[in-house]
Amino acid sequence: xxxxxxxxxxxxxxxxxxxxxxxxxxxxxxxxxxxxxxxxxxxxxxxxxxxxxxxxxxxxxxxxxxxxxxxxxxxxxxxxxxxxxxxxxxxxxxxxxxxxxxxxxxxxxxxxxxxxxxxxxxxxxxxxx
Length: 129
What we know:
- The protein is α+β, with helices and mostly antiparallel strands.
- The chain has helices at about 20-35, 55-65, 70-80, and strands at about 5-10, 80-85, 95-105, 110-120, 125.
- The chain folds into two domains: about 5-85, no CATH class; about 95-125, no CATH class.
- It contains three helices and five strands, in the order E-H-H-H-E-E-E-E.
- Strand 3 and strand 4 (about 110-120) form a beta hairpin.
- Helix 2 packs across helix 3 (about 70-80).
- The two termini are about 25 Å apart.
């Protein structure tokens, strides 16, 4: 399985594309160095920051990243989501299981039809057939 690179998904409230990459990198570096996030650990894909950081940690992260501890900014920081660069369009994980259909037999060969896949991280499903 290919390793994923973690980043922060650009939120809807962020206007424009400019500088989001820098902000995402800054947040991820702080999460790695100060808040116990493990680099390239796929299980963390899809995690909202407020699901594992305390209020004071969110405030420190908001202060360092956005130079503000206004309640609205802290709330926005808490709503940020860690994503990977993998195949899952929802969380970015590569950890997935094939969804199979019935067994087919074609002459001497046989096998299960692969209908799609399910992300083992966020349970997102996609059907390809």
